Amino acid sequence: MAEGRKVVGRNRRARYDYEVLDTFEAGIVLRGSEVKSLRAGQVQLKDAFASLHNGELWLEHLHIGPYSHALVDAHEPERRRKLLLHRREIDRLAGKVNEQGLTLVPLQIYFVHGLAKVELALAKGRRTYDKRKKIADREQQREMDRARRR
């Protein structure tokens, strides 16, 4: 874990459902009540994904729970949130997503020196038999490790 990095939410199923090819760190545009909710750990990344619209990267279906003490400026829990990356990175990701049929999936959301960041994965969806094969390989590796220790 990097120094000064506080993880507030993880997408545990992402590495199971997708084969991660590359990862990126992106900033995220948030409102004040969303930051407070994130710091309280009220975030769910389960169904979230990133998409491209008009040359900008957006994070969709990220659920940030409402902040209990926000009276006037309460946010909508599942609104689209803009992601901040350099233009070259966005163009490169757009090319890979459009040509190769890959997906952008958030792996975790965290704070680095007070700034909210999202770790995005350029991923390829796994089929059911791929998932079963991965589990079988993991079990086989465990058995080999056990035998080696004996």
Topology of helices and strands:
Blueprint: E1 5-10, H1 14-17, E2 18-28, H2 32-39, E3 43-44, E4 49-53, E5 56-60, E6 63-64, E7 81-84, H3 87-100, E8 103-112, E9 115-125, H4 128-149
Antiparallel strand pairs: 1-8, 2-7, 2-9, 3-6, 4-5, 5-7, 8-9
What this model shows, in words?
This protein is of the alpha+beta class and 150 residues long. It has one domain (5-149): Small protein B (Small Protein B, Chain: A). Helices cover 32% and strands 37% of the residues. The chain contains 4 helices and 9 strands; from the N terminus they run βαβαβββββαββα. It has helices spanning 14-17, 32-39, 87-100, 128-149; strands spanning 5-10, 18-28, 43-44, 49-53, 56-60, 63-64, 81-84, 103-112, 115-125. It has a 7-stranded antiparallel beta sheet. Strands 3-6 form a two-stranded antiparallel sheet. The longest helix has 22 residues, at 128-149.
Which structural traits does this protein have?
alpha+beta, 9 strands, Small Protein B, Chain: A, seven-stranded antiparallel beta sheet, two-stranded antiparallel ribbon, 150 residues
CATH superfamily: Small protein B
CATH topology: Small Protein B, Chain: A
Number of domains: 1
The portion of residues assigned to helices is 25-40%
Second rung of CATH, namely the architecture: Beta Barrel
Shape: globular
Mean residue pLDDT: 87
Q: For the report, how would you describe the main beta sheet?
A: 7 strands, antiparallel
How many helical stretches?
4
